[in-house]
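Input record (Table S2, row 489):
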Amino acid sequence: MRRERRRCKGFAAVALRAAPISEEAAIGTLIRGGTVVTATDVTHADVLMDGGVIAALGTALDASPHTTVDATGCYVFPGGIDPHTHLDMPFGGTVTADDFATGTVAAALGGTTSIVDFALHTKGDSLANALATWKRKAAGKAAIDYAFHLTIADGRDETINEIQTMIEQEGVNSFKVFMAYKHILQVDDETIFKVMQATKRFGGLVQVHAENGDVIEVTTKDALAEGHTEPKWHALTRPVELEGEATNRAIRLAEVAGAPLYVVHVSSAMAADMISDGRKRGLPIYGETCPQYLVCSEDDYDRPDFAGANYVMSPPLRPKWNQNVLLRKLKNFELQTFGSDHCSFNNCGQKELGKNDFSKIPNGAPTIEDRFAILWHYGYNAGVIGINHFVSLASTNAAKLFGLFPRKGTIAIGSDADVVIWDPAIERTISAGTHHMNVDNNIFEGLHVKGKARHVFSRGRTIVDDGKFVGETGAGAFVKSLPFFPVAL
Ligand code: URP
Ligand code: ZN
Ligand code: ZN
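Output record (zinc ion complex):
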């Protein structure tokens, strides 16, 4: 598969080519000499991948007739699970730069072997149709396995009644409601509450994009009327209180409905504190933060030459001090997952749609490739997050919440052989010039990280060999999520 892309300033074109499927699915692969790490254990063991699954774990396993891979000096992790991606998604008057081919190849190179992408429901349409549309986008393109969340665009009886079928028959266990993006994706509290009631009843999990969209509508119009058009006004019109208020409102609504809740892309200490408070009250609330909120800040909006637009995302980047609070919340088990919220747009031709009006800049940034490495570097390398906890945050917790565990998210006999051989000694500098995402900017440009995926396996097949993609676009499969079970995380 080959993908052409426009050449913009600072952007090196990369051609992706599919490689033939290897024979190893038939003969199996033995990983030797590595340190196997799961969410609970650290073991010096060999891992035999055979028939697409983990077939044996032990010492001095018989290598014949299998291919052997030496993992000496490396960690052997369950493949990363990214619970928050937007591939081939129409948004902000354009379509994301990465589709299921380019996005999942980049994910694989970064150590991620499964994604949970958002299938967008449109007002008046059925959930079944939304899911079918997104399955078509992924089929024949994805290089790694994928599941879906569904967004909910309206609270019609037909929509609410379909939730049961989605959970019980279609393998979707989570449903995202937007409290922002008024006139586009936002729904009212009545709809949110009805979705919570239905998911509680049938075994689903509600996700919220928590920002007060009604107030943002007013602050945005006011700013534009006063002649403010630059990217930084995206952040100035979305103050942190609007995230805090919406987070608290969603938690209180879930409390009344008796439903579990998952708050996506938590950007601030204020919103994270709301989640901590709810959890202290014993509520089944889960919070996700993202690499961009640990690494970038509101200062990035002041970058010259419209580069600030690359950082326009919602919720927006916050004052720098929030970064440490969020990292500490991950460390203290107050936030449970680390999603990329990958939603890539080229500066050239896409972000530029908002050159004269910040509210027209497509929201989102390219993060799928570097999510795993950033958590490793800022969490483990910095001595903040222990190695088992790293695996929980990068993989296992998402598998548990989104109905993929124990098929995904661990290294255990019978689990899918989705495995990363992680070399902690390799250093690299993140750059749009060398990344594999189909986009002309990288919000982590120049960041030096230590630790890299050396080999990656998807259901036992090598998809990354010595840092190079050797898999096949189209080899990834849709994986049905089991109904949600309220695990303590
Ligand atoms: O700015 C963002 N986060 N874009 C993706 C859509 C969403 O709200 O998750
Ligand atoms: Zn969102
Ligand atoms: Zn998102």
